[in-house]
Amino acid sequence: MAENKDKAAAAAGATTSTTATIDEGSMPKNPNMELAQLLFTAQETKSAEARDKLLAHIKQDNMAPFYKYVCETLKEPVDAALLKQMEEANKAELERLEAKISASLAESELREGWLAKSEWLTRIGDKKAAEESFRVTYEKTVSLGQRMDLIFYLIRIGLFFGDADLVIRNLSKAEDLLKEGGDWDRRNRLKVYRGVHCLSVRNFKDAAALFLETVSTFTSTELMEYKDFVALTVLASVVALPRPELKKKVVEGPEIHEVLHDMPVIKEYLMSLYNCRYAQFFQSLAIVEGQMKASRLLMPHSRYYVREMRILAYTQLLESYRSVTLASMAQSFGVSVEFVDRDISRFVAAGRLNCKVDKVADLVETNRPDKKNAQYQSVIKQGDLLLNRIQKLSQFINV
Length: 399
Known about the structure:
Layout: H1 2-23, H2 33-45, H3 48-60, H4 64-74, H5 80-103, H6 107-123, H7 127-139, H8 144-161, H9 164-180, H10 184-200, H11 204-214, H12 226-240, H13 243-251, H14 254-260, H15 264-274, H16 278-293, H17 302-318, E1 323-325, H18 326-333, H19 337-349, E2 355-358, E3 363-366, H20 371-398
Antiparallel strand pairs: 1-3, 2-3
């Protein structure tokens, strides 16, 4: 029991420290996104190393509610003795926090007490209780900036547990609060949060735009490290931006260029596509696909992303030719003729590539859409509709 009191006292110190940092404008890593990634890795790959690291974090912070969630997710039996020990420590800490709230006289002290409780509930992974506690804390908070920080907490809880509804609702609240005001740091932080959500729902275009706006002012280390942020920015930009914009904002972007030196795979992936080294690009794409499958944020979109990047690479090469042999394309991409034939035929049938495959001559012939002719046909069609409406209107007028 004495050991539990010591742990509770240590947790109390950590809670006080965290409360201080949120009011100073910085964001603590709470909940710790690394734990969500470890859980994903343990679930997908059955990695014993990831499971052991996860369990070590759980024991360190007495995360009894999260421990039950982990066991349920991994379909593993609960260690009853360990759970009881952590629950006793949690009970002691909860009693201490609630006693502090009860003893508070001033409104500011009362808010601090509820904030400390909310942060602690978040740290131990009690999602439902944390949401309710943050709601009470929000009601007792007057400052716009502090209210925004509470909303950021709830968004992170949603991202941590994969609760899309919680994320969307609080992103909307944050947008409404920003209309009332808000400092530069929180505006930029919200862009990063929105960008992460956009990635999670496969909206690469908006994610790229939001990330590029904040790449030089990134401070959201509670979500990810800057190196990981730049990698996500590159991955989203490559698939979403047109080539001239990609060159200006990514290839020649000083902030991105500086970090790419420490990420050879991402650098080669970007530069091989931009410099039309398609064989190297396909090799890099295979490595990037593996990295995406290992990420809880990107894994659901890995197949879609790889397919879109293959289409983009094929389109980029074909734009330079009226026709090209399958053998030449296969050599350019470092794959077999059969693979290129099968891959391009599938994309042509789906209407994703403006070309046709001549199996007799083993050629790929481009048939670029004529924009002027398409505009002309559109004007004729709209003109016919307008004339029909005028004729109908004239009949009513004559009557």
